[in-house]
Target: RNA pyrophosphohydrolase
Amino acid sequence: MSPLPYRANVGAVLFNQAGRVLVARRADMPNAEGAAGGWQLPQGGVDPGEDLRRAVLRELAEEVGTTRAEILEEHPDWLSYDFPPELQAMRIAQKYRGQRQKWFALRFTGTDADIRLDADPHPEFDAWRWAALAELPGLAVSFKRDIYAELARAFARYAG
Model:
């Protein structure tokens, strides 16, 4: 077990009006069209002392370029994962053993044109789409699969 701490993180399960969820393809995995791990939910770090609800809305704005969302529910638990050995060379994995995440279900209140992956000068994602909530575990990298399965269970009432 690593002596390193977990990084505080928030994640967004953004539902459209039809009950589908926004997933985005990592820019560093452009050939992962149908592969597990290429698509993920928006998530990101929490600044020290930052309110978690503000943090998830900030992450949505930074990663997918929209502020058109309202929080529906906060998952009651912190969910965590460890970085796998193949990611140990990454800078973040040298400071943290993994991520400890607080997840939120949100309702998208905009239109598809309000999703702007080019809002950040160094975008994390190069494509996005609406997916069925039940698809999430199959889209996730192996070390996030259990978390995505839990989110699909916990937020099922918002799915279409």
